[in-house]
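Show me a record, fold above all:
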Amino acid sequence: MAPTHAAAIIPQRGGAFIVAERTTPEPGPNELLIEVKAVALNPVDYHQRDTGFPPIPSYPTVIGSDVAGIVAKVGPGVSTGLVPGARVIAFASNFYHDGLPDYGAFQKLVLAQAEGVVALPDNLSFEQGAVFPLAVMTALTAWTTVGISLDTRYTPQDKQAVLIWGGASSVGTFAVQSAKLLGFTVYVTASSHNHEYMKKLGAHAVFDYKDGDVVSKIVRQAQKDGVRLNTAHCVVKDSLQPTLDVLMETKGDAPARVAHSPTLPQDHPTLDNTTILFNFPPVLSFGGGDTSVRDKHMYQCFNVWLAEGLKSNTVVPSPRIQVEAGGLEGLNAALDKLKAGVSNTKIVVPI
C-alpha cells in the first residue's frame, strides 16, 4: 500500500480547507521531499482559497509556498549537498508546477525543486525559517525586474538611494534588507510605531505614510543627503502616485525606475522618463517550456543571496512572527486572521 500523509486540501473553488490523507510522492530529478515543520501564510493564500485567483488549474489541490522542515528524500541530480535529515527552508509552491498538489506547502510532506531549497541555520527555529521564501523571492525579483542585478554593490560615493513604500509588510522588510545590502541609501514609509524596526533592518530614514506632507519630507531628506533618488519599489496598494510625486522632485533629468508589487492597473499614473513595471518573476507561466531563466533566478534568490545572508548574519527573519496553533486543521482560522489585517507581522503555523 502506498504511503500517505495529511494535507490541507481545497476541494473546490471558494471552498475552505479540509484535512485529508494524500498519497506521498517520490521526488523526481532535481527535487527534494520535505517533511514540513512550519508554514508561513501570505495574502495570496486566502485569495486562492476564497476566489481561486491566482488561477488554480484543477481541484482538489494544495496551495501555500513558505516551508521550513526536514529533508525526507532527495531525488536524482540534486547538487545542493542537502541530505535526508537536513533542516531546510523551502519555496514549495505549485505555481511553477501546473498547480499540481504535490508541490503545495500546506501538507505534511511536500515536493520542492532544489533551486528553492536552502539550509536552515541551527540558530533559527522552523517558525523563523518559514518566513523567508515568498517574501524573499518577491523582494529580490523587484530589483531584477527593473534591471538591478542582485550582485550590485553601490558604495556611498555612488550616492544611490531608493524609496520603499510599505516597508513594514512582509515583502517590505526584505526589500529594506536587500536594498541595504545592494548599497542603496534606503528611504522607507511605514506607520510610526514601526519606524525603529525599519531602521534596525537597514533604513536610513523612515517616514509616516499618513503624514499629509510625507512627499515633501522625503524630498527634503533626499536633497539634504545629496543622493540620487530615482529608484523605487511600491510594495503596497495605492502607493504609486505618491511615489511618483517624490521621484518627480528627486530624479532630475535622469530616468527613473519603479517596481510595483501589487497588480498594476491599466490606467495607472505615469511620470515622464520613468519605467513602471509589475514585479513578476521571470517565465512565470504554467506548462512546460524552457525554465532555465526562472530556475537560475530562483537559485540566485535562495542558494546565493539568502544562503550567503544567513551565513553572514546580514539577513534576518522578518517581520515579527505570530505563531498560530492548530496545525493543518488551524489553517482556515489562521488565514482568516491574516485576512482581517496584521501590521509588521508574519503569521506562522507549526505543522
In short: The domain at 4-132+283-350 is CATH 3.90.180.10 (Quinone Oxidoreductase; Chain A, domain 1). The radius of gyration is 20 Å. The first strand starts at residue 4 and ends at 9. The first helix runs from residue 43 to 51.
